[in-house]
Amino acid sequence: MPDQASGEVALASPAKPKFNTGKLPNAKPGEGKPRLLLMGQRRSGKSSISSVVFHKLPPSETLFLEATSRIQREAMHSFMDFQVWDFPGQLDFLDPAFDLESIFGGIGALIWVIDAQDEYLDAINRLNAIILRVQQSYPSINIEVFIHKVDGLSDDYKFDIQRDIIQRIQDELSDAGYENTPVSYHLTSIYDHSIFEAFSKVCQKLIPQLFALEGILNSLCANCHMDKAFLFDVLSKIYIATDTSPVDMPSYEVCSDYIDVIVDVSEVYGWDRPKKVLEEPREQPCSDAESAILLMEGKYIYLREINKYLALISLMKSECEKKKGLIDYDVNVIQGALSQVFGYEH
Fold first, then answer.
1. DSSP helix/strand/coil, 345
2. Scanning 55, 304, 325, 331, which has the fewest C-beta atoms within 10 Å of its C-beta?
3. String of b and e for 168-201 (b: at least 16 CB within 10 Å)?
4. What does pTM read for this prediction?
5. What is the tens place of the pLDDT at every residue in 180-219?
């Protein structure tokens, strides 16, 4: 598969990937998969986040997880095909014994987890020290701050905590001469969909074709009168793209839960299909790879499998059910467009 003009894909083996997910901020030819580094203080919730998002562990069972004592490296074989590195909270990354190049050299994003229900000044100080260190050699690294465990806090209190954390980080970075450091902040919890929403935004920054995907979904929404459309990675329930209309959590939650329903039903009533049929974005209708349901509140939800990893899910008004033939035709066209965007080799 030829690479996009924006850069080369970092390959872990001579075999070419099925899809081109673009170049990482600091990637070099021949490097491995994109890395998402989970860092933070002890007991901040790093391992729980990884287990819930990537291993489908029920949130209630994360209470029995042991504290991470060594670096955990796990490969996620989804559309993005990346690695998640879970770092123990006691490691001092500023110790000269650590090779920063081996940790941050091929990074996709640094995710710093802060426990919002605990004292967080030490966590902020450590984060600022790491940012100041890596900015000297890796200025384009995406820094993502997860203000975690906010499920038990009132809206006013958690927003006050978010403002305080942002202010403290920005003030110290500004004093050190780093005015425009790329730091993003997310309020998260494993007990709702906020953690999946946060990871969706993190992963979207690693997809150079994002603007093209948004344009395709905007066109689909306009032609089919859809209220919202998402392109989901089915295995992780992370959406890699959506149209440019604002994302409201209820719509995202409905679509995310619908994926769980379809996956559970497929495990019982599904059947094996040829590998070629699963992996290629199809330009022809495929009746066994779609689902639709009419919700009680007058919404119509439509799902279409794009390939083995991706699914298109859209929300629209109930009257659009009568135009399903037109919707099917437009989605078939979208499948062909996605095939071209991702550079699939037929």
1. coil
2. 325
3. bbeebbeeeebeebebebbbbbbeebbbbbbbbe
4. 0.81
5. 788 999 999 999 999 999 999 999 988 888 999 999 999 9
